[in-house]
Design goal:
heterodimer; A: 308 residues; mainly alpha; 2 domains; two-stranded antiparallel ribbon; 2 strands; 2% strand; B: 557 residues; alpha/beta; Rossmann fold; six-stranded mixed sheet; 34% helix
Chain lengths: 308, 557
């Protein structure tokens, strides 16, 4: 699972983009579902996020995220009609329940739940995309220019996770061979057994940190004023992706202020102004699609690849 | 003038009343290759830390004596400058890496020096090109192999352009191929690029001949300082074991010259042995199938195993281990040795095939049930240690299996020379002692079969001899031992049977003499005697061969 969730270099277009540009683009995918409520807009952004996962060649890695998202969506869709009782279009009534009374299931509540689910899925996909295309060192490198201590801390912690996971698995096998049955005993006893594992892990991590600190000092850490190593190149593709994310975000804010992205679910659906609503939707989706189109071109069109 | 000079230096770690370094006088000259040898706890690593400016700046403690760099005495905060002029590579490749990717790791030290962007890029580019690390540039350091990690650690140090390169047992965690590559690189850095190298090493077969000078340390003191050949003679006289086999052999026969490599050894050996005719040489063939009439303790049949999402690691392996047998499993990295050991221990269950342990299929036994029958020692002894005292570690296993003590703890502690340390915290012990505590913690359950994964890693010759003797004692009393190792010298000395694994399959299974026939897994002495005498794998056997046993008394332990 841990292996699946970690960044893997695949040489895809989205992985080759400058960290500022890709972070802007992912920020747009993350913030758009938060500032808009219109289901068509949500679907549009969701679709782009979904395609971005395929463009980054990371569908397999994102499956765990998608599965979690799908379950959460179903959960929200099922729960919302039970809680929200404002919809006018009643589909059916549930049997009379003690204390709660008779619940009515409305079309508006189901659709609102579905829209919330799509919003949630889009946000989850944005995080999954971040995981798949952004090298952690690029971000820490970016942050280290103004907060190098925090960035170093993140880097050290990130580096420790895989080895800690390996140590944990190995320590558990060894404990079992030394006669510890993790499934036996009361909850408190089992908790105690797991605390032994934690103890092994903690002791090894502390020793490891001391060795790492020594290696850091040996490499002149803390000797004086630090500089910051950066080797990210800026190419035309970076500008295109940066402006596609930024313009999608600005357009969405404008559309939100103008009320084009608003949609009322209760007490009944507000009408869709197909002309103006769709115009802004198409514009935003088009902006968000630029990196995906470039990704396709980068893969299949050598001329374009050479130019961006 | 010496590049670095240490005069009458004594050092105590915080809270210690015994000096870890005692009256050290040492000169390190420009471009020199200095080899430091000695047992665990002899002060080698402390000396390396003094040279690298980490003692007392990082460790604290009390330091007396003088330290000069390029003739200038370094006092107090001045010693900080050593961090910039001396680069140190530690033994654990995992723990010394700081950043997540290779390129960032190499740049880390340069950032600390506050270099300009242009200068940093130039140095990173040069080092990556020189060490052929460019293909790994964006790779996560945690996903690299041990050899690659150590190479990255070396690259990170080289990028800082140190005047002295200190290597503290850099190959102790590496397989022979990676260790050989690493030492070739160090040789090139010294011979062709003029780096001053201070190498602390336990595996001396590959590096003894590289040194211009060898220093022997015992109990915090430098007890010998001279050429490697003289160091070999001096140690043989005093029965110290820190000598590679070829040098030990010739020093033991009081040869006028002490060759340090197999090639030079073979030339010198002709003085002692006649050349055997080709016909005679090819007459004897070693029977590959081992014959052991004792009943089988473990029978593995047609084992297949793949890790989830990975390829086949074990492919149709069969193996039988008899009562009282000492089997060593050899093979390259990723050949499937550790996986095979985990399958035999029952930690992993085979995809196909079966493992019968004392007549029971391991698939039907829980790990707890297996723990009474089989003792498994992983590569990392720290996975076993979390109790407050050594004695508690042993009692922990006993309590889990509800075995009454009846003096078994004391007996095992005494056997493993741990009795005096029974009240010590296991985490305060040296790596060799930790290894023995981990071993003791599984032996108290009375397993009939011991499965050991590279237990000699990082051990000095003396500790290896102790471990070997102990394991021989176990097999003599009816126990069985299966050990995965890269240490062919240890295998030649103690094993009865050798299994070589290649690509998840058994390439060879036979008595220990097969090591003599092996091209790459032959011990140093076997390579030296190849074509001159049959069945000679160890120094003892070599001495017997040239003297008909009369010279056996000369050899040190």
């Amino acid at each position: 699972m841990l292996e699946q969730l970690s960044y893997k270099s695949k040489g895809t277009f989205l992985q080759s983009i400058h960290s500022v540009a890709i972070l802007t683009y992912i920020a747009a995918l993350l913030l758009l579902p938060l500032i808009i409520t219109h289901p068509l807009y949500l679907l549009g952004v969701f679709l782009v996020s979904f395609l971005a996962i395929f463009a980054s060649d990371s569908a397999a890695e994102c499956i765990p995220f998608l599965v979690i998202g799908l379950w959460l969506t179903v959960f929200v869709m099922l729960c919302n009609p039970l809680i929200a009782q404002h919809g006018n279009t009643v589909l059916f009534y549930l049997p009379n329940l003690p204390l709660i009374g008779r619940l009515r299931i409305s079309l508006e509540a189901i659709c609102y739940g579905a829209a919330m689910g799509v919003r949630l899925m889009t946000i989850i996909l944005a995080f999954a995309l971040y995981n798949a295309v952004v090298h952690p060192d690029k971000v820490t490198g970016l942050v280290s220019r103004f907060a190098w201590k925090s960035s170093l801390l993140v880097s050290l912690a990130t580096r420790m996770i895989p080895s800690a996971a390996r140590d944990l698995s190995s320590a558990k096998d060894i404990m079992q061979l030394r006669g510890v049955d993790f499934s036996a005993g009361t909850f408190r006893e089992r908790l105690k057994k797991y605390s032994w594992l934690l103890e092994v892990l903690l002791l090894s991590s502390l020793e490891g940190s001391l060795a790492t600190a020594e290696a850091m000092q040996a490499r002149a850490f803390g000797a004086g004023r630090r500089s910051c190593y950066r080797r990210e190149l800026v190419r035309p593709r970076d500008y295109l992706c940066f402006f596609s994310g930024l313009s999608a975000l600005l357009l969405a804010v404008y559309a939100r202020v103008q009320g084009y992205t608003d949609f009322l679910f209760y007490p009944e659906f507000s009408s869709v102004a197909w002309g103006s609503d769709l115009f802004w939707l198409v514009l935003i989706v088009l902006c968000l699609s630029i990196p995906l189109i470039l990704s396709w071109g980068w893969k299949h069109w050598p001329y374009l690849r050479s130019k961006i | 003038m010496a590049l670095l000079e240490i005069k009458d230096l004594t050092y105590y770690y915080p809270g210690s009343t015994r000096p870890s370094l005692n009256s050290i006088d040492l000169e390190i000259r420009e471009g020199e290759f200095l080899l430091v040898v000695g047992g665990s706890g002899s002060g080698k690593s402390s000396l390396a830390r003094v040279i690298a400016g980490l003692i007392p700046e990082f460790y604290g403690g009390r330091l007396q004596g003088k330290l000069f760099f390029q003739g200038v005495e370094l006092k107090g905060d001045d010693r900080h400058i050593l961090n910039s002029h001396v680069g140190i590579v530690f033994q654990d490749p995992e723990k010394q890496l700081v950043m997540t990717s290779v390129e960032a790791e190499i740049a880390f030290g340069l950032e600390n020096l506050g270099l300009t962007q242009q200068e940093m890029f130039r140095r990173v580019a040069e080092v990556m090109t020189f060490l052929n690390l460019a293909p790994l540039r964006d790779k996560f350091t945690s996903n690299l192999s041990g050899g690659e990690k150590q190479k990255v650690a070396l690259a990170a140090v080289l990028a800082m352009q140190p005047r002295i390169l200190v290597l503290d047992e850099p190959t102790s965690q590496l397989d022979p191929v990676a260790a050989g590559e690493f030492l070739d690189l160090v040789e090139y850095l010294n011979k062709e690029l003029g780096y001053t190298v201070v190498l602390i090493e336990q595996r001396l077969e590959r590096c003894f001949h590289l040194a211009d000078r060898a220093v022997v340390m015992e109990q915090g003191e430098i007890v010998f300082d001279g050429t490697p050949a003289d160091a070999a003679r001096w140690q043989v006289e005093r029965q110290l074991p820190f000598i590679p086999p070829v040098a030990k052999f010739f020093a033991s026969v009081n040869s006028s010259a002490v060759p340090l490599t197999v090639r030079d050894g073979r030339r010198e050996l002709h003085k002692y042995l006649p050349i055997v005719s080709l016909q005679e040489n090819t007459d004897r063939k070693i029977k590959l199938t081992p014959v052991n009439k004792e009943p089988a303790v473990l029978v593995a049949k047609n084992l297949w195993y793949s890790y989830p999402g990975g390829g086949e690691v074990i492919r149709g392996q069969s193996l039988s281990v008899s009562k009282g047998e000492f089997v060593v499993i050899l093979g390259a990295n990723a050949a499937g040795k550790s996986t095979l050991l985990k399958l035999l221990a029952g930690i992993l269950k085979p995809d196909r095939g079966s493992v019968q342990l004392l007549g029971q299929d391991t698939r039907h036994l829980s790990l707890m049930e297996l723990g009474r029958k089989v003792g498994y020692l992983s590569q990392n002894p720290n996975d076993y240690l979390f109790q407050d005292t050594v004695e508690d570690e042993l009692r922990f296993t006993l309590n889990n299996f509800q075995i009454p003590d009846n003096g078994i703890c004391d007996e095992i502690l005494k056997k493993l020379n741990l009795y005096a340390l029974r009240h010590a915290n296991p985490r305060d012990l040296s790596s060799g002692e930790r290894q023995r505590v981990a071993l003791a913690s599984i032996l108290v359950a009375g397993p009939r079969l011991l499965l050991l994964d590279e237990p000699t890693r990082g051990m000095d010759y003396r500790l290896k001899a102790e471990l070997g003797g102990f394991l021989k004692g176990i097999t003599a009393s009816g126990g069985s031992v299966v050990m995965v190792t890269h240490d062919v010298e240890f295998a030649a000395e103690y094993a009865e049977r050798v299994v070589m694994i290649f690509d998840g399959m058994v390439a060879c299974d036979g008595p220990r003499e097969v090591l003599g026939e092996s091209i790459f897994y032959a011990p140093q002495i076997a390579r030296m005697f190849r074509g001159l005498a049959q069945g000679v794998l160890t120094v003892r056997e070599g001495l017997e061969k040239v003297s008909g046993g009369a010279l056996g008394v000369c050899q040190s332990r």
